[in-house]
Specification:
The protein has helices at 2-27, 31-52, 60-85, 89-97, 101-109, 117-133, 136-141, 148-175, 180-204, 215-241, 244-266, 273-289. The chain has 291 residues and is mostly helical. It has one domain (2-289). The chain is globular.
């Protein structure tokens, strides 16, 4: 049952990434575009999660957890977008995706969740899957300027992503994912306010959107927001019931495999030999982790 839940999470993540990628290819041309898109995504998540919430009682623990998760989440999205614009794409994505190492470690050390030798081998293979899936050869061969700015940004993106996952994990473990709908509604609401404020500041400084806002242009953001709302609610509940030593590495490897296959089907992108190998290694790793 746990593996089925993680598979659904991987499919939702793949749909979200592919939808966002299709929009970004022609519409996200500057940081203002990115902040408006992210704001739309989080606003949609907040409205949907609040509308579906069976209970809407707020308390200090929920608000604190939601604030931490929302701030780290939107910070990661913004920093990650800037890092992608000034450095090698695959290496940036790889370092950001390795953020799951932190919550895996917390699961094993703090929450004493099982991590057998076979599970540990699986985790190492998942890391190998992420490395193989990244097109590092192309990035290192291209004339990308990798300077201090990019290095600082990618480290901040790693930190923000890991702290976001960690704050969500702590909330889920402490409360049993009680009021997960309200938690996602509040965290997404905070994130959307920050994103739209950034967009407004950029607008005042002359960095305006590269396109005119229309319902058609907002539709991808709304679609991603709906998918992400369902994903985050399920992910929060999964964190409370599935050991992090199983959930995080299985999700990382599974989503990488599904996204790679989805990119091949949707965008016609050819997989390199290393990426093909990553699919095999990833499947073996998932088996090891879930034995």
């Amino acid at each position: 049952m746990n593996l089925l839940i993680i598979l659904v999470l991987c499919l939702l993540a793949a749909i979200k990434v592919l939808t966002q990628s299709r929009f970004a290819k022609g519409n996200t041309k500057c940081i203002a575009d990115s902040s408006f898109f992210v704001g739309t995504v989080f606003a949609t998540m907040s409205v949907l999660a609040f509308a579906l919430s069976p209970e809407r009682e707020l308390n200090a623990a929920l608000l604190l957890g939601a604030a931490c998760f929302g701030i780290f989440n939107v910070s990661f999205q913004m920093i990650y977008q800037i890092a992608l614009s000034c450095g090698p794409t695959s290496i940036t994505a790889l370092i950001a995706s390795l953020a799951s190492i932190i919550p895996i470690s917390v699961s094993a050390i703090v929450y004493k969740e099982p991590l057998t030798v076979l599970n540990l081998i699986g985790v190492v293979l998942i890391i190998a899957t992420l490395v193989l899936n990244a097109d590092i050869k192309r990035d290192t061969g291209a004339k990308n300027e990798v300077g201090r700015k990019w290095f600082l940004l990618v480290i901040l993106a790693f930190f923000a992503n890991s702290m976001g996952i960690l704050s969500q994990q702590i909330y889920a473990k402490a409360t049993g994912a009680a009021s997960s709908f309200t938690f996602i509604a509040c965290s997404s609401g905070i994130a959307s306010v920050i994103a739209f404020l950034l967009c407004a500041v950029l607008h005042l400084r002359g960095n305006r959107l590269s396109y005119t806002v229309t319902p058609k242009k907002m539709l991808p953001g709304v679609a991603v927001g709906v998918i992400l709302a369902v994903f985050q609610i399920m992910y929060t509940n999964a964190m409370s019931s599935i050991p992090g030593t199983v959930l995080f590495p299985t999700y990382s490897g599974g989503s990488t495999i599904v996204i790679a296959l989805g990119s091949r089907l949707v965008f016609g992108e050819k997989l390199t030999r290393a990426q093909q190998m990553s699919l095999i290694v990833g499947i073996v790793a998932i088996v090891f982790i879930n034995v």
